[in-house]
Each structure stands twice: as structure tokens, then as C-alpha cells.
Amino acid sequence: MFGAMSDRDPTLIPTSPSEEDYVRQVANAAPQPLLSAADPFALFADWFAEALAKEVNDGNAMALATVDEAGLPDVRMVLLKDVDPKGFVFYTNLESAKGRQLAAHPQAALLFHWKSLRRQVRVRGTITRASDAEADAYFATRARSAQLGAWASDQSRPMTDRLALEKKIAEVGLKFGLSRPPRPPHWGGFRLAPQVFEFWRDRPFRLHERLVFHRAQGGWSTERLFP
Question: pTM higher than 0.90 for the full model?
């Protein structure tokens, strides 16, 4: 199916919109004033609330980009679990690939893409560990089966077969019985403190709107970018 480009099925890749498609988009769209905000967290909160209401699945999903020991970029989807003026918080196995990469190189980037809203937000910044109290509080809210999975999974490391995982989950279940497992020592949270935000909004004719916030002394500076 994915052979040489000359042999590919042209129906696999959507065609670019035609002039008529763009004209219809403009005619059917409500006028949108230019993005304007002094606080990127406030603008994010507005967009995030709308995404949670309108996205079909996981409005809090975000791509997390890191680098490995060779400087090779790595990216995967994770779930945002908290956001406040200090930053964006997510949780993971600290011994996973992303956990090791963030410990070695405590800088990262996030991307929220909300297809139904035709918007995206990019965030870049520095990484610190969430506190044990924060991690404990969030872990306690997880379903017991997910808690057992956090104990059983050697995340990102080779697995002989699915049975090996199921066996470990059964062993952990027997260990804790009917009680709620505590947070594993190898499981915790990270907080990304933004240095740069970029808010992107779809506009017709690929003339998209891009508003960037840079952390500055005592606040934020803004600039607009060509699409």
C-alpha cells in the first residue's frame, strides 16, 4: 500500500481545498476578531474549557516532546492532569523512556491539537518534578486496576509477551488484596513551566493566525507570526 511515491494510491492523501472550498468556508464562518490576551494561561483556560466540551475524546490529550541521550527527538501522547500559573502537570512511570529523558534533559515541549475547534497550542519550557504530595493525591483518584497496572508495568522496557504483563498484574493484585495500592516509588509527576506559548487558529486560504507569548520580566511579551 505504501510503495514508491509514483505507485501510491492518490486517494490516500486528501487533496488541498479548492478556491471554491475556501470561499464557502469564509461565507459560512462567523467573523472572528483577532486573538488578544495579556495572560496566556487565561487564554489557554478559555480554549481548554471549550475543547473539553467539544472534543470527542480526550480534550486533555497533548503531545509531549523530549530528547534522548543522543539528542534525538522523541514524542508521544500523554494526558494533562493539572494546569495552573506554575505550569502543566502530567504523570508517568519515572523509569519509562520519557521519565529518563526528562530527568537527564529537563526541558520539553507540549502540543495540544483540537481538531474539532481547528486550533492548537504549543508550549515550550523547563521541567521540574511534581511534589510527592501532588503525586499521591492524583494517584489516589485512579481506578484500582490502573493503580495495579502502575505497579506491574516496567514501562518502555522489553516484554516477552502479553502473558508476562497479565501475570505481574495478578501478582500485584494478590500482594495488595482488596486494599487500594499506594503510589509506587517509581511513579510520579512532572511540571512544565512555560517559557513560550503559541496559540494557532485556523483561517481560510492557509492564512492562519499565530499569537506568541514569551515570558518576560514581570509578565509576558507578545508577537504575531506570519502563517
Answer: no
d(CA 76, CA 98): 9
Q: Among residues 136, 112, 135, 129, which one has the least CA distance to residue 48?
A: 112
Domain-located, residue 19: no
What the block records as the C-alpha cell of 111 is 502540543
As a whole-number percent, the residues of the chain with pLDDT over 90 amount to 79
Q: Which domain holds residue 87?
A: 32-142+185-224
Q: Which helix (H) or strand (E) holds 54?
A: helix 40-54
**Per-residue pLDDT tens for 146-160?**
999 999 999 989 989
Domain presence at residue 154: no
Cell of 43: 487564554
Instruction: Give just the sign of the alpha carbon dihedral 35, 37, 40, 44.
Output: negative
Q: What is the pLDDT of residue 4?
A: 54
The CATH code of the domain that includes 205 is 2.30.110.10
The three cell numbers of residue 131 are: 511534589
Which residue numbers are catalytic? 206
- Pairing of the two strands 73-79 and 61-67: antiparallel
